[in-house]
Hints:
Elements: E1 2-7, H1 15-26, E2 31-37, E3 43-51, E4 54-60, E5 71-77, H2 80-96, E6 99-103
Antiparallel strand pairs: 1-5, 1-6, 2-3, 3-4, 4-5
Amino acid sequence: MAELSLALGRHACSLQAGASRIYAALGIGRYRFQERHGPNQSYDFYWEGGRDGAVCRVRGSDWDPALPQSRLHVELTGGAAAAQWMQTLQRYAAAQGWGVAEIADA
């Protein structure tokens, strides 16, 4: 799994708007909102889409997906396609003026 953290700076937007921009950059036309509830009232929400055997999940930095997100966290899985997507997103983020950091596996 590859993971990126994108710092949007003055371009903060809702999670849906940010995910839409990322999926457009990757050429992913279909994606869906996932909301999972866990124990102790914990929950996780993200947008998920994929193609060519790879999956991309986009999470926000804020607990409320409707609020402006200062960061987007992108998880990429699926081998060679995911590696190519990482390069595409790094170039896209740079062109948008976003900060980008690759997160190392723990």
